[in-house]
Each structure stands twice: as C-alpha cells, then as structure tokens.
Amino acid sequence: MRELILNAAPGITEERKWRKPTNPDGVLAWSSNGLVCTGEVYKDKVKLTFMHGAALPDPAGLFNAPGTGATRRAIDIHEGGTVNATAFKALVKAAVAQNSGKAKAKVKAPDTKAAPVKLLSGGNPQIAKGDGDAPVAQYIAAAPGWQRKACERLDKLIVRAVPKVKKAVRWNSPFYGVEGQGWFVSYHIFNKYVKVTFFYGRKLKPMPPVESKDPHARYVHLHEDGVLDEAQFTSWLKQAAAMPGWSGH
Known about the structure:
Number of domains: 2
Shape: rod-shaped
Strand order of the largest sheet: 6-7-8-9-10-11
Order of helices and strands: HEEEEEHEHHEEEEEH
Number of strands: 11
Helix content: 25-40%
Strand content: 15-25%
Distance between the termini: 65 Å
Structural class: alpha+beta
Number of helices: 5
CATH architecture of the largest domain: Alpha-Beta Complex
Radius of gyration: 34 Å
C-alpha cells in the first residue's frame, strides 16, 4: 500500500507521527498540504485512514471500516485481503488534490480595488515615481477627458518612432528615454493642453514651436482639437532619441 501511495503522489511527504512509549514506532503518515492518510498496524488488520475521506469519490467502495467519524474514512485490510490498486491510487490522487484546493482557499485573494488616482491642478494625475510601462499606463488611464486620448496618441507615436524606448514616471509626468542616454521627451497635462517637453529641443531641426525658460528645452502643446503634424513630431522624436538626453532622475 505504501508503494501505491508513493507511486500515486511522487511528491508526497512520508513520516512517522505520534510516537509514544506504548507505540515507539509511531504511525505512518503521508502529507501534501496537510494530512492525506495514515497507516496503522493492528493484530488482525492494517488500517489506512483518509483524513477527509468523506469528501472523496469512492466508486469502487474501498472504504470499509465502520465508525470513522463525520469526515474521516478508512480502509481495513485483513490477512489475505486485496485492494483494487487502480482505484486506490485514484483515491490518493483525489485526496492530494482536495488538500491542494483547501490550501489555495486559505490564501487571501489580493485586493484588486485600487485607490482612485488623485488629479492635481489642471487635471494632471498624481502617480508615484516608477520605472517601466506600468506607471505610464496608470498615468494615461487616470487622465481626464480628451487629455487621455491625447496621451494615448503621444505614447503610441513615441513607441512607434523609438521601439526600444525606456519609460518611467517622474514628477507626475511620463518620461521616455533611451537606455544609457537619458530622457529625451516628457509630457504633462494642463487644463487647455498637454505640454510635450523635448529636453534638448533647441538642437532639433526645425525647433519645436513653443519656447521655454530652460535654455535647452522646447515645447509642443497638444490641444483638444487634436491638431498635430505627426510626421514632423515623429521626426523630432527620432532626432531627440539619437542624441544624448537629460540624465535627471
């Protein structure tokens, strides 16, 4: 029977439990996410008790021991007796699967209700600093009204122009850069437009149209009407990504 158990559940844990002076060898026990069954030797039989046998399918009628309680079920094997090996292995597999299901049920499901994103002045989402696609996607998803579509459009244009672009959120704004070269463009939501910042825009040809107090930067303002020369914008993106960017963190 031990061989059948180990064959049915190769990863099962086998040990001796409940040793005491009157039973120094203890009781054989097999576990997988909790007790599966025990094996006890008596003068006239061997008893295999399944801890949650009452919940297991037993079409072959293997459980034959009386008085095993509300949840337990046992198999008594007497001298000369036989047990259907295929049915017994199926019983062991069912017990292991049941324990696995109980173990998963005890794991508390994560809280999928994310706290609403706070919108700052101008409707700009407040997103924690982070690297990768996730914080940028969170920023875009939280953007209000037409600004969300504008941000989605910008993100697609940037990724299309620079397929290996590196993304992050800094100072509540999506940043895009090239690994090892720094950031080349960012954008930020205001009430009347989305401000796109080329950190070294003065080096671009032609320069983006909106001036900046920063001696290196130039801006593009994307308004609700959606007017944007995508060909020119893509050219600026490719130029900016090809030169050393801003290394601010």
